[in-house]
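Bumping with the actual sequence this time:
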Amino acid sequence: MKLIRKRWESFIHACKYHLAQGLSVEKVALTIAIGFIFGIIPLPGTTIVLCVIAAFAFRLNHLLIQSVNMLFYPLQLILLYPFYKFGNKWFEAYPVNLPDFNSVKFSLGNLWGIIEKSAGNALLLWVLTALPISISLYYISRRMLRLYAIQTSGKDSPQL
């Protein structure tokens, strides 16, 4: 049992080291915010590519941004229906009647047709909601990470 505990602690320490890799608190907070914003985009299948592009563009940790992205994947699936429903209701460029998920007629073919017709409305609603949330998430996570770094290192200039 001691051996398992020692191996587990070693694994956790290695994960912390590789996730942080000497990044500043601001970079880690930015990685969390961008991973979140792309993690809930209402276009399934695009999140990984968008996170890779953002990580290259902003020089962020790829492992961390993909981990945050995958952490929010269940939330993306939960938010697909509201994004498409309220996007169509509010912007009405291409009104689409969304099927009831409990109905017998609902199929994946119906879902793909809905995504094709109303993705723009859902994306517009996503931009309007995800940007303010991700900006506030950036400042909250930056503050929490800064406090954690100061507490663990004892320095005034935190570095994870």
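The tokens above came from a reply further down the thread. The longest helix spans residues 108-153.
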